[in-house]
């Protein structure tokens, strides 16, 4: 058999991994060394050489996008569709299992997925019911606790009682929250994994079936598996079997969410006879970028240790831009992107990566002003926008009346005179009867427990949902979505807003109709867990919406600049990369600098960022930044300093000079409050940074900036002379 198409463009170590005999195998290798490529080729190898059926393969990727890409690649290689192959994220796979075995999993057939927003909403209600103060029990923190428990395979009963009141309180909240979820047929993200795990654990027949079926399990980005995901893999393979995992300990960036880099090491103990293959050649980046990445990560202790090299040339130096503030940073980045496009580059080849989601706003505004289309991965997801969530909440109620978070969301959206007091009455009734808000509303209407006006309004709402269900039943999904948007009054409400936002929201609602149509056209019924005999597209679509970490702005397929958080960038690569906001406090994040373990995770995140770049890398930081409503003067991130200076080029340090001889520093025209005629080598005092020496001066008037070295405040900083309150000494 000719297998050259699988193996030809692989190096010897990669080939060894792809062609390894069946059995546990671990590929341990640094960024860009071809781990994902090897995993994809291995699937092709199993299907062709090992004669594996697509049904016998389970491949786990880090995002839905990666899953779609991998499936596409394998299909292209094999030149045929591979329907039976299960490929997706841990969550996606768990969801599919639960849809198929909802009865054994003790779930209602139409169970709904709670995203983190819904989860917080539900928790708030539980806290209110317990008379707990949200300030003392912040819902996101409580959610974090519950999610961690689930990731560690702990139900409330499994939590040890250490006698501490706080622990007991947490346990009670967890218990009640879970009861609410059960009652409403709601499953949060952590629950998806835990339920699927319990499904296998508690049903030996199902476990045997899936063990028998999935002869080959492959997992990408294994360093970021958490306890339950690791246990999943163990359970499914029975500690033996053909398990193929790839990972890089230096790219473990979800420790805060329970990932355990130790799982990479444990694998060798838990899977007897496991082979390890290391890949050392990097094919992604230039030599300079790779050297920078290696130097940076060398500052972390306790690594498994890898030696990455590239046959590529040095390439361009890494450009460092010292921006005056966040607006200047965005202006600079967008200008460079514009030049890139002008020189024939694709917009999609440029990526702007940041630590915190909120940083995207300034870039978005600047890109819009420059008429450059862009896309955000992760952040503002289509399915997370308010108007979309409103429409989905209606659809969810149509599918499942007891979905309380959806009920609360839209009972008075658009406004229909159901006030907070009425909703409180409903909540109270639901609590005392132990039922859902929907049932409480029915009960109160029957018993006359609501005043005339409130009763009419509530009855109107219930009738609307019933009518939407009845009238659209059996119709094609886009039709149903369309009806919900119109008859709920959502479309009219946003149309009346008559501003840009309202218009955008109506467009988004229209897009939801399209999305539901696309979903039916493109979704593989098996993949999305739809019973072919009795297809329930509405539920499948709602689950898709909850799970989808879809793309943001920019029409699909349009060539757009890519914006995303560093976490979202894992596994991806781009010719041109900008890492922005490299400042102490922002990146590394202020809450991570105190503890060595957390600081190392931040450094791994920086390593992920640097290693996304193929040809050109920019590192940007600002002298001044508005952050959390305050003006800050951060010093450059230590990660910038950890990259050897000989690999970098300081964009600011060499201002454009005309002619060969350096021009004298421009005189500084008077701006209010600014010392006149600031000159290099002058000594000055800053109210915050203390004494320093002027190194350079640029611009005039309000635009005058001075670079001043403050030996006691972290070195050189650019300051706007007009605002810096410098005193000449
Ligand atoms: P990461 O750690 O970032 O996930 P990775 O180890 O998964 O990286 P890949 O994304 O698989 O690396 O590969 C990096 C790049 O190198 C890709 O563009 C890939 O196509 C290319 N590549 C991998 N191996 C080879 C090879 N033997 N010859 C040529 N190109 C290769
Ligand atoms: Mg990869």
Please tell me about this protein's structure.
The chain folds into four domains: 182 residues, P-loop containing nucleotide triphosphate hydrolases (Rossmann fold); 73 residues, Arc Repressor Mutant, subunit A (Orthogonal Bundle); 173 residues, Rossmann fold; 161 residues, Orthogonal Bundle (PCRA, domain 4). Helices cover 44% and strands 15% of the residues. It has 26 helices and 21 strands. Strands 9, 10, 11, 12, 13, 14, 15 and 16 form an eight-stranded mixed beta sheet that branches. Strands 3-2-6-7-1-8 form a six-stranded parallel beta sheet, with helices on both faces. Strand 18 and strand 19 form a beta hairpin. Helix 7 runs parallel beside helix 9, helix 9 runs parallel beside helix 11 and helix 21 packs antiparallel against helix 23. It is globular, with a radius of gyration of 28 Å. The protein binds adenosine-5'-triphosphate and magnesium ion. Magnesium ion binds next to helix 3.
């Amino acid at each position: 058999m000719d297998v050259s198409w699988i193996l030809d463009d692989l190096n010897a170590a990669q080939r060894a991994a792809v062609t390894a005999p069946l059995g546990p195998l671990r590929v341990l290798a640094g960024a860009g060394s071809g781990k994902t490529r090897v995993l994809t080729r291995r699937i092709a190898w199993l299907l062709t050489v090992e004669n594996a059926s697509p049904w016998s393969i389970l491949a786990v990727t880090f995002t839905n996008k990666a899953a779609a890409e991998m499936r596409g690649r394998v299909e292209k290689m094999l030149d045929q569709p591979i329907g039976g192959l299960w490929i997706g994220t841990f969550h996606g796979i768990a969801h599919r299992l639960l849809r198929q075995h909802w009865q054994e999993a003790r779930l209602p057939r139409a169970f709904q997925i709670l995203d983190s927003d819904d989860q917080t909403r539900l928790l708030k209600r539980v806290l209110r019911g317990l008379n707990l103060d949200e300030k003392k029990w912040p819902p996101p923190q409580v959610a974090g606790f519950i999610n961690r428990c689930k990731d560690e395979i702990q139900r409330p009963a499994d939590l040890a009682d250490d006698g501490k009141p706080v622990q007991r309180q947490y346990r009670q909240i967890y218990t009640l929250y879970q009861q609410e979820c059960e009652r409403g047929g709601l499953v949060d993200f952590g629950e998806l994994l835990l339920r699927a795990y319990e499904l296998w654990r508690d049903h030996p027949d199902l476990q045997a079936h899936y063990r028998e079926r999935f002869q080959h399990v492959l997992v990408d980005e294994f360093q970021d598996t958490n306890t339950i995901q690791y246990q999943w893999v163990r359970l499914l393979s029975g500690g033996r079997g053909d398990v193929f995992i790839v990972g890089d300990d230096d790219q473990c960036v979800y420790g805060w969410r329970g990932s355990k880099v130790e799982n990479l090491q444990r694998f060798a103990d838990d899977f007897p006879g496991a082979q390890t293959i290391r890949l050392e050649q990097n094919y992604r980046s230039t030599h300079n970028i790779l050297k920078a990445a290696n130097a940076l990560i060398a500052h972390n202790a306790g690594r498994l240790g890898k030696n990455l090299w590239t046959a590529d040339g040095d390439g361009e130096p890494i450009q460092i831009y010292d921006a005056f503030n966040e607006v200047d940073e965005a202006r600079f980045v967008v200008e460079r992107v514009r030049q890139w496009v002008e020189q024939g580059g694709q917009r999609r080849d440029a990526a702007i990566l940041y630590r915190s989601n909120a940083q995207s706003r300034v870039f978005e505004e600047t890109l819009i002003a420059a008429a450059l289309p862009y896309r955000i991965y992760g952040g503002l997801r289509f399915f997370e926008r308010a108007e979309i969530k409103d429409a989905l909440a209606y659809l969810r109620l149509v599918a499942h009346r007891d979905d309380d978070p959806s009920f609360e969301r839209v009972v008075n959206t658009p406004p229909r005179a159901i006030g907070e007091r009425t909703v409180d009455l409903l909540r109270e009734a639901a609590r005392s009867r132990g039922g859902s808000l929907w049932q409480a509303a029915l009960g109160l209407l029957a018993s006359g427990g609501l005043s005339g006006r409130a009763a009419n309004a509530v009855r109107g709402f219930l009738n609307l949902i019933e009518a939407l269900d009845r009238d659209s039943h059996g119709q094609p999904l886009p039709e149903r979505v369309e009806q919900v948007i119109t008859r709920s009054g959502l479309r009219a409400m946003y149309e009346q807003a008559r501003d840009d936002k309202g218009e955008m929201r109506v467009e988004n609602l229209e897009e939801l109709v399209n999305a539901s149509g696309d979903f039916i056209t493109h979704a593989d019924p098996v993949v999305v867990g739809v019973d072919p005999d009795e297809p329930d597209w509405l539920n499948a679509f709602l689950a898709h919406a909850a799970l989808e970490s879809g793309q943001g702005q920019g029409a699909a397929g349009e060539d757009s600049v890519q914006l995303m958080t560093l976490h979202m960038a894992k596994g991806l690569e781009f010719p041109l990369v900008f890492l922005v906001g490299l400042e102490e406090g922002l990146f590394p994040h202020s809450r991570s600098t105190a503890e060595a373990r957390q600081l190392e995770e931040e450094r791994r995140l920086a390593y992920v960022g640097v290693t996304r770049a193929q040809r050109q890398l920019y590192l940007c930081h600002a002298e001044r930044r508005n952050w959390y409503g305050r003006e800050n003067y951060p010093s450059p991130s230590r990660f910038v300093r950890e990259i050897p200076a000989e690999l970098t080029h300081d964009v600011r340090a060499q201002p454009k000079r005309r002619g060969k001889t350096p021009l004298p520093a421009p005189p500084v025209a008077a701006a209010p409050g600014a010392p006149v005629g600031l000159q290099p080598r002058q000594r000055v005092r800053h109210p915050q940074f203390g004494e320093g020496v002027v190194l350079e001066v640029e611009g005039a008037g309000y635009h005058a900036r001075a670079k001043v070295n403050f030996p006691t405040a972290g070195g050189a900083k650019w300051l706007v002379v007009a605002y810096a309150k410098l005193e000449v000494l």
